[in-house]
Design goal:
The protein has 315 residues and is of the alpha+beta class. It is built from nine helices and seven strands; from the N terminus they run H-H-H-H-H-H-H-E-E-H-E-E-H-E-E-E. 14% of the residues are buried.
């Protein structure tokens, strides 16, 4: 709600500047105003974290309690606000190449839109969404939500006091693992789900353990390089031609010592561009667990231009 107040102030300031520019016919006398608009645009850009926290942390907890329609409506309005923020950013970016009169007109339209959207949206959140959340979300869920807020981050204008982590005395909760499920920090999967998920990836994945032995590979539908089960347990050095073993050893050694975390290469094969990456796999304490090889055919990816949004999808 404190962020709401600041964003409303930004919108009011933008509106004031837009109206002021209407009275100034010579663009040579508006440099201070343009700088202020740039700063406002930057703050609006950084306000994205506000919406991301709501969409990815607050809304899921509401939905768990059966509150689904208000979050859906708010998310739709977030996207409307995002469009206006993008328009403002593009307007600022193209200021020097835009006709001054046209710039002023478009600025007024964008400022008016934000000045209308934000108060209406924030009123709904402050008076409907947030009170509902306070009623249904449990204390334990709020503690988890706060951790997720911290992970996503805060706006550059968020009051520092609000970003200070609260000191909470909580009892360690022993996680119970549902039978037949693999429990992860970010969810749980059955063995069947996990295997299908890995095999559905549009990339080849191979994992070499800390002892340099091949331990796993996925069965992607269109693998770039052939893998058979007989490779399991084989030393990674034996999976490469003699002439490149010294490079493999160098990469693995750099990963083990912590000097490097990534090594990448790309080759042309059968008129296709193949991207090969090696990643050091480490635990939370940065202890080396092994190396993951990821291979991907990026020929078609490199041809992508423009945009194709989710709403453009057709059956």
């Amino acid at each position: 709600m404190e962020e709401h107040k600041i964003m409303l102030q930004l919108a009011e300031k933008l509106n004031t500047i837009a109206k002021k520019l209407q009275k100034i016919s010579d663009k040579n006398y508006v440099s201070d105003e343009i700088h202020n608009i740039e700063h406002i645009s930057e703050d609006f850009h950084d306000s994205e974290k506000h919406y991301l926290r709501e969409e990815n942390a607050l809304f899921p907890y509401l939905e768990k309690h059966g509150i689904t329609e208000p979050p859906a409506i708010m998310w739709t309005e977030h996207n409307q606000i995002r469009e206006k923020k993008k328009q403002l950013a593009k307007l600022v970016e193209s200021y020097n190449s835009t006709d001054y009169q046209d710039f002023k007109q478009r600025l007024v339209e964008t400022a008016d839109a934000l000045g209308s959207l934000l108060p209406n949206h924030f009123f709904k959140e402050n008076n409907i969404l947030f009170p509902t959340a306070l009623q249904v979300i449990t204390e334990e869920e709020w503690k988890e939500a706060r951790k997720e807020f911290d992970e996503i981050g805060y706006c550059c204008f968020t009051p520092p006091l609000l970003t200070t982590a609260p000191k909470m005395k909580t009892k360690e909760k022993v996680a119970t693992k549902p039978e037949g499920l693999l429990q992860f920090e970010t969810g749980s999967l059955s063995k069947e789900e996990l295997e299908a998920l890995l095999d559905s990836l549009p990339i080849d994945v191979t994992f070499v353990d800390k002892n340099d032995s091949v331990k796993y590979f996925n069965k992607a539908e269109k693998r770039v390089f052939v893998r058979t089960k007989s490779v399991i347990g084989r030393k990674v050095q034996q999976c490469h031609p003699q002439k490149s073993i010294h490079i493999v050893n160098s990469i693995v050694e750099a990963f083990k010592t912590g000097k490097k975390d990534v090594a990448e290469f790309w080759i042309n094969m059968n008129n296709r561009l193949i991207h090969i990456r090696y990643f050091a796999v480490r635990d939370k304490a940065r202890k080396y667990l092994g190396t993951m090889e990821v291979t991907q055919d990026i020929t078609d990816i490199k041809k992508i231009e423009g945009e194709q949004r989710l709403l453009d999808w057709k059956e």
